[in-house]
Amino acid sequence: MKLTIINGSPRNKKSNSKILIEKFLEGYGKIESSNIEIHYLANIHKMDEHAKAFAQADTVLLIFPLYTDCMPGIVKEFIEAIAANKYGNKKRFGFIVQSGFPESIHSVYVEKYLEKLSLRMQCEYIGTVIKGGVEGIQIMPNYMTSKLFTNFTNLGEHFAKTGCFNEEIVEKLRTPYKMSKANLFGFKLMSKTGLTNFYWNSNLKKHNAFENRFAAPYK
Amino acid sequence: MKITILNGDLNPTTNSFSRKVEAYVEELRKSNRVDLFTLAQMDLHYCTGCWSCWWKTPGECAINDDAEIIFRSVINSDLVIFASPLIAGFPSSALKKIMDRLIVLLHPYIEIVNGECHHRKRYEKYPNLGLILEKEPDTDDEDIKLVKDIFDRLAINFHSKLVFVKMIDEVTKLDFVIMEEVRNDEKI
């Protein structure tokens, strides 16, 4: 099977989406290593090429980070470029949506849109993988990311074998849908110690912007 | 009332959608202060996810384009109306582009709202949101619901409320209705 991957992250090759795809392809490559194409929508001046790659593909996976509980603007531009055509149910279309917040509730609304979009374009809908808590993975220690990466590697291997997303792994990745009472309690405790905002505070301090963090310049 | 209208029509010089939006703005101006932004005619770039607005220059976007005037208008409005024809079942990329950029108006700190993670306010007050769409030939009720749900989510993120969703052909005579809805909303 020929696999075309569309990376819809505005962060291009520095994206968390790219890292997840690399892990996915590690697993995929155990079964099949040829016939893989990757396109980066952040190269917006190449939108015609991206659309052409979509038109010529058999199986397409579109990955993007959640922006305003939806697709980023560059992904919408891509969708506009490909959705003017119908594909006669000869093309398979799947999605990976990753977000900063840990819960999948933020992503399930665009998931419904993506399923309907596939139907509208007459593509076979493969499904949508949702994964929260992805912001920060590039600075997390290995022990914090190893489970996530293993899941993506296994997802990729299963995909190469079957052409489908493994339901068990998909379920694991999209958990929690909402935070449990215990999670919320833990979050409150962490808020008091300042841990929840550690990522932001350390970056604010790194850029000498901490004192100015509550600035409201457009009022 | 101060109102900002973000028109995401990709072909504003030729599409009837933009003519209708302009006619609507004329009506609104009789009793409100209205800023209309025709996004396709402005120099606007996509958010690059650089986080400058959160941790380098808090509250300020690093991209030097026409967006700043929109940020100022939006955060100082009582009502922001997103307007766009549906394309592939969703408002245009031009509108989504500016929606993404509005993250500059939020703070990175995370708080719990209705048991969910959200980003805290940067400003004291956020405008109500409205949505004006134009159907495609194949648009059905489910499509409108999908879009409405996503804008309801945007409103939660934005410490705001989606106070109406209308089709463009319904709105020209609906100045009054919209105002009433917003007023009722403010009473709550």
Quick synopsis:
The complex is a heterodimer of chains A (219) and B (188). Chain A is of the alpha/beta class. Chain A is built from 8 helices and 5 strands.
Q: Secondary-structure blueprint of this entry?
A:
The complex is a heterodimer of chains A (219) and B (188).
Chain A: E1 3-7, H1 16-31, E2 36-40, H2 47-56, E3 59-65, H3 73-82, E4 92-98, H4 108-120, E5 124-131, H5 142-162, H6 167-173, H7 181-193, H8 198-206
Parallel strand pairs in A: 1-2, 1-3, 3-4, 4-5
Helix pairs in contact in A: 1-5, 2-3, 5-6
Chain B: E1 2-7, H1 16-29, E2 33-38, H2 52-55, H3 67-75, E3 79-85, H4 93-101, E4 106-113, E5 116-121, E6 128-134, H5 141-157, E7 162-167, H6 168-171, H7 175-187
Parallel strand pairs in B: 1-2, 1-3, 3-6, 6-7
Antiparallel strand pairs in B: 4-5
Account of the protein in words:
The complex is a heterodimer of chains A (219) and B (188). Chain A is an alpha/beta fold and 219 residues long. In chain A, 45% of the residues lie in helices and 15% in strands. Chain A has 2 domains: 3-178, Flavodoxin domain (Rossmann fold), CATH 3.40.50; 183-219, no CATH class. Chain A has 8 helices and 5 strands. In chain A, helix 1 (16-31) crosses helix 5 (142-162), helix 2 packs across helix 3 (73-82) and helix 5 packs antiparallel against helix 6. The model of chain A has no long low-confidence stretch (mean pLDDT 95). Chain B has 188 residues and is α/β, with parallel strands linked by helices. Helices cover 37% and strands 24% of the residues of chain B. Chain B has 7 helices and 7 strands; from the N terminus they run βαβααβαβββαβαα. The longest helix of chain B is centred in the C-terminal third of the chain and has 17 residues, at 141-157. The mean pLDDT of chain B is 93. The chains are: A alpha/beta (219), B alpha/beta (188). At the A-B interface, helix 3, helix 4, helix 7 and helix 8 of A face helix 3, helix 4, strand 4, strand 5 and helix 5 of B.
